[in-house]
Each structure stands twice: as structure tokens, then as C-alpha cells.
Amino acid sequence: MQKFYKDLKNLILSDDRLIESLFSKQSIISIIRCILEPLVNANAASMIFHRLKNTNGLDGIIKRLEYSRNVEMYNFLDPDIIIKDDLIELEFILLTSSRYNAVLMWDYSDDNKKENSNIYFMLNSKNVNHVFDLLSQNMKTDLKEKFYSYKPERRENELLNFCVSNIVKNLNSIIAENEFKDSALNFEPKDECKQLKEKIRHTSHEIRNQLSVLDIYSKILEKKFNDDKTSSLIKKSIALINMELNELRQFDNLNMKEMHLEDIIPYSIKMFEEIVKQNNNKIIFINSTIQNDKRKVLIDEDKFLGALNNIIKNANQFTNDDEIIVELSKDETYAKISIQNHGEPIEENIKNNIFKDGFTTREEGFGIGLSVVRKYLTEQLASIELVASDEEKTEFLIKIPLIDIV
Q: Which residue, among 47, 49, 54, 73, has the nearest Cα to 117 in the 3D structure?
């Protein structure tokens, strides 16, 4: 296997389209997602071979691919698949489909702190076949016939373009890491950052104290007035606030589960039924899915509910004497949630800015609501867009991939 490692590295280094630079683990995860997401979104038939020692940040997308009937995944940490494994810190992912193929390899063995690594990367290269040949020498099962049945089209296609454009976007945002290559391991936060972290810690502690008081009163409310409905809504709100506080403390805290949106959306509606009445509004849920469509989505319930609540809250704040309509529908690939009101349309000159962090049209606003919504949804491979805002209606559309029923 050590010879395999040397041969593999030499082969990849011979490709003139590789990327070799110092990247953090989080940056590497972002690039992995770039090459995997087109397969998820298009449900494209493919084979994937990987050796990932830590899948934090990738659990959701890997589970989706494993659930897909069109994808075969092979883990090079699984003793049932490989003859032996003595590659130490080498990690890689190889995929091939009828639309494109890719190899991504990195090695933490030269980094004492195991936080940064060079990347060796090929996309739609004929050398991907040679990489597979090297891998297959250490596999218990002969998969050559299957692997070579995929012949990626060399012409331009939507999946390949999506993969490349996302990689370019990620590299543009993280390439600055290389400017700090020599000092990355010794970098210390400035005093102001330390003070900010300390303030966040103290503030979070005090907020949690107040939440515990609210939790106690919700139980009193339930016991004294036998009002378990209101009590459960309060408890859910407390859980969402706690989730936001956890966001301040850690980045990767997704808790992905298979769920029916038919169960999630009505819960959000209940939370706002009384609130919207303050603006003399009414909230309506329309389920336009086929009655026997039992397909689920893979989401973090709290984060998804937090994003949906934020959109409904905005819809209520910017209209009066109105019906806020939340509609669920499904097509072959996606579940779609439409949220619309009929208030003042969003001005044309600000439509492109509404999802930007810090942008707001309200004096008391912080400009983070919609940017957080997009962040939460993107983490779950979902998306949100403003599809209409005119005299007739303002409509936001959330799309999230469906899990095929096996």
C-alpha cells in the first residue's frame, strides 16, 4: 500500500490540471461538496470510492448518495472492501459518472497539527482511470467492468459546469489561505477576538438562564390551565433559541434526520397562528402533494424549522389584512415550499441584495435574517430564492432534494 500511495501521488502530480496548495480541513470539505452535489441534485448514476477518516460536514450529502439507487459507494476504510489499509493520513475521493469524473487526494502526514494539507485534484481527466487501476489492486472485489462502463462525456454539460463553477467560487473565497502558509499554524486570535468570544460566552449563559425560567413557566401554564398546546409551542421556541446559541459555539452541529415535510410545516404554522393575528393576517397551509407520496427529506429539523420560521415571520411583518400562504409540493427530484404574501412588493433595486449579510431596509434591523436562512438551508443542500415580488404577490421558494423510496 505504501507503493500504491507513492504511485498514486506521482500519477496525480503528472496531471497539469491539478490544484496543489495548502488548505484547511474545512476548505477541503467545501471542495468535496462541490464535486458531490451535482450527483445529488441530478440523481446521476455513478460510482464513488472514498477514504474519509472524518465525515463531519459531509454526513448529509454522503447519506443522500448512499440512499440513492443510482449511486454505488465503496469505503476504503471498510475491511470487507480492501485487502489492507496502512495509508496512515492519506484521504481521497474518486467518482465516475456518465457526465464527469474526479479525483481529490490530500495527506495530513506532513502537518504536525493535522489542520492543513496540500490537495491533489483532477477533474474529467483520463488519468482518473489510472487512479482506479491503482485502487483496484487493493480491492477484494473486481469492479473494473462496472467502473469502465461509465464513459464521461467530454462535451460541455450542465453537471460538469455546475461542479467547476462551484469549485472556482470556493477557491476564490479560500485561496487567501495560501498567503498565510508559513504562519497558519502559529496564528493567534487578536485580543479583540478573544474579548468578543468571552462576551458571547457570558451573554449565552445569561440567555440560557432566562430560557430556563421560561421553560419552568411553560410547565406551570400546562399544569395550571391544562394548555399543553401553548406550552409545547413555547418549548419549541426555547429549543430553537438554544440551537442559535449553540451556533455561536460551534460550526458543524447538523443533526440530519429523514423527515416528512408534511409534519414539519404544520408545526411552523401553529407557532404563528396567533402571532399573525396582531397584523390582522391569516396563515394558510396548502398541501399540494399527491396523497400517497411518502418521500422524505434529509434535514436538521431545528435548523430547517428556524429557516422556515424566519421567512414566515418576514411575510407577516411586511403585510397587513392579508393571507400568508405556505404551499408544499413535490416533483420528481425536489420538495418545494412556497411562502407568499400580498403586501408591498420588494423594490427592484434591492432584490439582488436581500440575502446579503448585513443588508436591511429597516432602521432597527440587523440585516442577518435572510442570510442566516440561506446559510441554514445550504448546509442541508436546500436552496431559497425570491421568485416573484410585484403588485400581485411576493413569493419565496425553498427547494430541497427528496430521498427516493427504496
A: 54
How many angstroms separate the CA atoms of 20 and 10, rounded? 13
Instruction: Round to whole Å and give the CA distance between 131 and 135.
Output: 6
CB 121 within 8 A of CB 104: yes
**Cα–Cα distance between 314 and 361 in angstroms, integer?**
12
Cα–Cα–Cα angle for 363, 281, 314, rounded to 5 degrees: 35
CA nearest to 84, candidates 74, 73, 76: 76
Helix (H) or strand (E) holding 131: helix 127-136
Which amino acid is residue 54, in one-letter code?
N
Sequential pLDDT tens for the chain (406 residues): 556 667 766 766 665 555 556 778 888 888 898 889 888 877 788 999 999 988 888 888 888 888 888 889 999 888 888 887 777 778 899 999 888 888 888 887 765 556 778 788 888 877 888 888 888 888 889 999 888 888 776 555 677 777 777 776 666 665 544 443 433 333 344 454 556 556 666 566 556 656 666 766 677 777 777 767 777 777 777 777 766 666 555 444 567 888 999 999 998 898 888 889 989 999 999 999 988 888 999 888 888 998 999 899 889 988 999 999 999 999 988 999 999 999 888 888 888 888 876 656 554 443 456 888 888 888 888 899 999 999 899 999 999 988 866 4
pTM for this model (two decimals): 0.46
Taking CA atoms, 364 is separated from 90, 143, 227, 360, in Å, by 50, 61, 34, 9
**142 CA to centre of own chain:** 34
> What are φ and ψ of residue 287, in 5° steps?
-100, 105
Between strands 116-123 and 22-24, the pairing is antiparallel
